[in-house]
Write a structure and sequence with these properties.
Blueprint lengths: L1 H7 L6 H45 L7 H29 L40
Amino acid sequence: MHVFTLYFGWPAGAVYSNLLASAICAALVWWRIRARMIAHHVEQLAQRDRHHAEHMDALSLETPGGLAAVMAEVKDARMAAESAHGTIQGFALVTGAPEPAATRMRKTVPKDPAPPAPPAGMGTRIAPKTPRGKA
């Protein structure tokens, strides 16, 4: 009880000044905590932006490596395939072999397929030779 009387200043009458100082201190503490939270959030956003920029650089065709290297390999593979196709056509012209005709799709599954075998380890149920209760 003695602490409250000194804080509120009952003998001297300094009640409102202490309440005002408490409100100001509480506001400053709240402002400081809120500023730290906002700074932490801004740092996380900046980190995400840096991470996003790294990925965008890897996906850009102008930067060396990344997607540009993949696209160069695809282009080389396509050129090699076209070159091989042209070579094969040239051999066909030299040998006089006719171009292969388009083949028709055939069904490879029979009309009445056999039922699938049970998986290994699952086995079939073995029934006893005599019914239970008649032994």
